[in-house]
Amino acid sequence: MLYEAMKEEIAKTEECGKRTYDGALQNRVNEAYVVGAGDSFAAALVIQGVTYGRFKAVDPYEAQFSYVSLKKPYVIVSVSGRTKENILVAKKIRDRGGKVIAVTANPESELARNSDTVVVIDYQRPKHPLPGTLSFTLSVIALYGLASIEINNFKEIVNTRPRKLIGLEPIFIGTLGGYGVAYYSTLKFYEVFGSKARFERTEQFCHATMFSVRENDQVIVYPSENDRRAMELVERIKDKFNVAIYDRCNGETKPLCQILDFQESLAEFIKELGLEKPYYLIAKDILNISSELIY
């Protein structure tokens, strides 16, 4: 059931992505702070890398302690529009005269009501709870539109090339936008398997994190465009560790291809393991604590 539901969501990417992207383009801005938590923070990290910091990722709780600048709009990403720290920061920014743009699937949400502009992602909540799949991809696509980054070939993006996932404790490594994909991939391993996966930036991995990797561990690499350092790393470690590299597509859409390829890989791994529901639905005591903190 979990495998089929994820595949169904992935299959909607092109259709829903085009509508989301077109809507976001109508509200484009030159630069922004991008606020989000969980998958939404991963989306913020992706766009931060793709724009080389023109769009900057910000944690919603930390943003309440130090407003970097109110000269830039704050793009607050929340699929549900219900997460309390996002709502609090939206209210505080607007009270101080700042501009808030909400990226959400719920235009009637409290976050949307406390925003100046609402960008609606074309997403309907599935019948059965899933780890964020299409909702995450659409959030990233909306940010591409807001940042005026061209997506001219959705068919190329959805023409996936999955890699075989091995073991429950991989380390995901990424450069720029790929670092956001690495963070997202790790979140899915937490939610789906309750595992101890990790994520790291490419250069930081070379300095210290490499010492924590064992011979049978899988190292999954998400390079950026013309990523000299990631290619050098892969060449040096490919005979020692179980290395997989997600390097499909060229240019600024590379992270989107990496997202779709990983989602397909994850779905196939779930099928291989015969998993019927994600770990977060099994660990109900932890889920209750998490929900009480978030909403």
Largest sheet: 5 strands, parallel
Structural class: alpha/beta
Count of extended strands: 9
Helix content: 40-55%
| Assigned CATH class of the largest domain | Alpha Beta
Q: In percent terms, what proportion of residues is strand?
A: 5-15%
CATH fold label of the largest domain: Rossmann fold
CATH architecture of the largest domain: 3-Layer(aba) Sandwich
Per CATH, the superfamily of the largest domain is Glucose-6-phosphate isomerase like protein, domain 1
How many domain regions?
Answer: 2
Indicate the multimeric state: single chain
Overall shape: it is: globular
Mean pLDDT: 96
Q: What is the gist of this entry?
A:
The protein has 14 helices and nine strands.
Describe, in plain words, how this protein is organized in 3D.
The protein is an alpha/beta fold and 295 residues long. It has two domains: 2-155, Glucose-6-phosphate isomerase like protein, domain 1 (Rossmann fold), CATH 3.40.50; 161-281, 3-Layer(aba) Sandwich (Rossmann fold). The protein has 14 helices and nine strands. Helix 11 (228-237) links the parallel strand 8 (218-222) and strand 9 (242-245).
Question: Topology of this protein?
Answer:
Layout: H1 2-11, H2 13-25, E1 32-35, H3 39-50, E2 55-58, H4 60-63, E3 74-77, H5 84-95, E4 100-104, H6 110-113, E5 117-120, H7 134-146, H8 154-158, E6 171-174, H9 177-193, E7 198-201, H10 202-207, E8 218-222, H11 228-237, E9 242-245, H12 254-273, H13 279-282, H14 284-294
Parallel strand pairs: 1-2, 1-3, 3-4, 4-5, 6-7, 6-8, 8-9
